[in-house]
Automatic annotation (TrEMBL):
It comes from the Eukaryota. Transmembrane segments: none annotated. InterPro entries: Kinase-like_dom_sf, Prot_kinase_dom, Ser/Thr_kinase_AS. Residues 1-168 form the Protein kinase domain. GO terms for molecular function: ATP binding; protein serine/threonine kinase activity. This is RCG46055. It comes from Rattus norvegicus. Pfam families: Pkinase (PF00069). Keywords: ATP-binding, Kinase, Nucleotide-binding, Serine/threonine-protein kinase, Transferase.
Length: 168
């Protein structure tokens, strides 16, 4: 295992507060590159969140904790019904509705988690952090993607990116 001295995005947020938009956009691009590589190789991470995004002192992002990751048999975004995963894996505030509802999911659930992670980098907390974990899970499962937007102080492209990630 590689030592990553910079710490996780969550630990940086806890120490210094939310990240400036220019910084979280730079990190988001790198997260997307890493997740694209996983998805091209038929792997779904299933637990993308600030604690699992490490920052090297050079500014390079590394995804960690592949304990929930799963190799898929099919390379499409959603998969066929028989290829879709149904077990609940991940961390509540970052879990997609289809994961919570165990209705079958694939790569799209990682995109949801990326949206939650960008929200976390921008605001210091994941969406629905004001709710208890179980209440947040019930909300996400019942509302199927009706999530809070980024605050108005962020650019329209950043807000649109998060909204698109969290749309079902």
């Amino acid at each position: 295992m590689e030592f990553v001295p910079g710490g996780s995005i969550s630990s940086i947020i806890n120490r210094f507060g939310p990240l400036p938009e220019t910084v979280f956009c730079k990190y988001t691009r790198q997260i997307l590159q890493g997740v694209a590589y996983l998805h091209e190789n038929c792997v779904v991470h299933r637990d993308i969140k600030g604690n699992n995004v490490m920052l090297m002192p050079t500014g390079i992002i590394k995804l960690i904790d592949f304990g929930c990751a799963k190799r898929l048999a099919w390379a499409g975004l959603n998969g066929t019904h028989s290829d879709m995963l149904k077990s609940m894996r991940g961390t509540p505030y970052w879990m997609a509705p289809e994961v919570i509802n165990e209705s079958g999911y694939g790569r799209k659930s990682d995109i949801w988690s990326i949206g939650c992670t960008v929200f976390e980098m921008a605001t210091g907390k994941p969406p629905l952090a004001s709710m208890d974990r179980m209440a947040a899970m019930f909300y996400i499962g019942a509302h199927r993607g009706l999530m809070p937007p980024l605050p108005d102080r962020f650019s329209e492209p950043a807000a649109d990116f998060v909204r698109l990630c969290l749309t079902r």
